[in-house]
């Protein structure tokens, strides 16, 4: 029987066929024919099966056994960080808050929301990681910014497993919370409510929110060149946000490359497009309180942003007149809410004080989940997340005091950009508001002593 015939007969067993192809070459038959015949194997087909079987046994002996799971990982349920979490939950609620940045009640409320979407089915090989552990790992990552390897040692999980859990859970957090806690207002009534809060708390009428942008530092993406390289000589994506009077994010734009300026970020955002196309359902221009001065509703930003009818910024800081200083002071009081919101975010969820070692898309997912979590905790008015004195505050004489978050490193601001050549109407609107702040209807008693 020819070698070719034996090869066809062996095709029923893939393993033996591969061995035959690699071991039983025609030269092997010629050099070993005497040995095979000594075993009473006359046909080449018998020889082929014999050699294939022997080779298969040798390969099995050489193959090293692989452990399905490292030994120290198997004791997760007995010695993992979840055991400490259970003890803190019962005996030390303050320690629990410091560990996960949420109270026990808030943790279980979050768990009830995300559990149906992050629960995994057990397999015949091992038990799955519970939804409670998955949420705990993710909250710990957001609270500390520790590496996946470091978290792996704490929770007794593989670092690759930690990475998958964090990514999946952050996606679920954003998906389930965004409709209730990270949604831009869609009606005139909702916008008016925000404006009323600004007027009541910060004495700035017709303000719809404060806008600013920050860098989220990431590891250099592969083959990205200088696309994400910013003016701070680091790699980043940009976060632009609008914040209401209660430090809650009401609009976010995340993921633009770090080299873009504030003005450039605003210019290419969907917020600007919606404002230009009048799709936000903003309230129409109305009279300022106790006057007949008609003034549009607007956002407030710093000098990096363009001056528009719907976006006010300070007067340039050169040769300022006293009335212009008063306007800048009043605008600054309203704009501080966005600085404080970013300060709270970065110092309570410290993943933003580190370099996020993920690709840009995954860093965006983490950021959006953190923003949803921030708004969720602000909605709860939790002292665990926002202790007294943590944000900027004014005493009875309206002397401004820095919040404790300013004592620590915060997110880096986006660099200055274009946004020049404002319209005459925008300049006139700013001047009208300046005059209003000087009038008996719009002034506050303490403004002169702080400019």
Automatic annotation (TrEMBL):
<protein>
    <submittedName>
        <fullName>Protein ANTAGONIST OF LIKE HETEROCHROMATIN PROTEIN 1-like</fullName>
    </submittedName>
</protein>
<dbReference type="GO" id="GO:0046872">
    <property type="term" value="F:metal ion binding"/>
</dbReference>
<dbReference type="GO" id="GO:0004518">
    <property type="term" value="F:nuclease activity"/>
</dbReference>
<dbReference type="Pfam" id="PF13359">
    <property type="entry name" value="DDE_Tnp_4"/>
</dbReference>
<dbReference type="GO" id="GO:0016787">
    <property type="term" value="F:hydrolase activity"/>
</dbReference>
<keyword id="KW-0479">Metal-binding</keyword>
<keyword id="KW-0378">Hydrolase</keyword>
<feature type="domain" description="DDE Tnp4">
    <location>
        <begin position="211"/>
        <end position="375"/>
    </location>
</feature>
<keyword id="KW-0540">Nuclease</keyword>
<comment type="similarity">
    <text>Belongs to the HARBI1 family.</text>
</comment>
<keyword id="KW-0539">Nucleus</keyword>
<dbReference type="InterPro" id="IPR027806">
    <property type="entry name" value="HARBI1_dom"/>
</dbReference>
<dbReference type="InterPro" id="IPR045249">
    <property type="entry name" value="HARBI1-like"/>
</dbReference>
<dbReference type="GO" id="GO:0005634">
    <property type="term" value="C:nucleus"/>
</dbReference>
